[in-house]
Amino acid sequence: MTVSSSDTGTHHGAERPRRSALYLPASNAKAIAKARTLPCDMVVLDLEDAVAPEAKEAARAAAIAAVAEGGFGQREVAIRANGIDTEWGAADLAAIAASQADAVLVPKVDSPEHIARYHAALSGAAPRMQLWTMIETCESVGNLPAMAAMARSTRLSLWIMGTNDLAKEMRAQLTPCRTPFLPFLAMAVAAARSHGLSILDGVCNEFRDLDIFQAEARQGLMFGFDGKSLIHPAQIDPCNTVFSPSEADLDWARGVIEAFALPENQGKGAIRVEGKMTELLHLEQARRLVEIARQIGVR
Questions:
Q1: % helix / strand / coil in the chain, to the nearest 5?
Q2: Cβ contact 137:166 at 8 Å
Q3: Do 126 and 153 contact (CB within 8 A), yes or no?
Q4: pLDDT in tens, 214-237
Q5: Distance CA 135, CA 210 (A)
Q6: pLDDT per residue over 146-157, tens digit each?
Q7: Which terminus of the chain has fewer CB atoms gathered within 10 Å of its CB, N or C?
Q8: Residue 56 CA: distances (Å) to CA of 63, 67, 107, 120
Q9: Global pTM?
Q10: Inter-CA distances, 266 with 120, 270, 276, Å
């Protein structure tokens, strides 16, 4: 795992591992029970795409009950609401705001104004509740920097790419190489990093061929994503492997931390470590890497 040099965000708990986020239909009690035992870092109980219109209200009640019951351990638990302008959106947001969820994930966010509306809808929620948004529309791609800047004044703390919806809106082909989307993936990561947001790659629709999945996960890592959103439990282990710090990464990180701790390097902004110029931003990156490794139990 290579962390980008600009990856210094600490907004809203960005130091926790966010390698794998598994979507589950909130209407599926069996899947929710199983999720409490799976090695994913995050669970997203879905009220939106995965739930039929006639099941929306029952799914909302099930999601709220599931987070109240707990049992998810160290996993972050989010509930994906229906859009604020749908017939279910307002009731979803009111229920989630009053719930024990760590975050609300909202779909098809286009603009800073849109984020402000969701933030206002969560005004009664506990301070710890985060706002996560999907980046999945053509309009959102043109507003990435302005939307990321909303992290400074709202609950916004994380983005998830919605490549399926983006492909549909663009009329683009979603192939394993993801060529049409590469500029947007890079732009989204850059915008997120500039304002301390965490950011997760979109789902890979291939859950039977894990080689295809792993190649896409490695591509996401190359772009600088913190992790990936998943549609099947079989994707969790390969995803965690790709997005976990490697032995070489940790050796480098510990070397940087030790070098900056030497008496002769106190107060210096840049030093040489193993023949390479290393700056304070690399020190911050190294500390983050070691902390993530500690949390996921990498020795």
A1: 45, 15, 35
A2: yes
A3: no
A4: 999 999 999 999 999 999 999 999
A5: 25
A6: 999 999 999 999
A7: C
A8: 11, 17, 15, 23
A9: 0.91
A10: 45, 10, 18
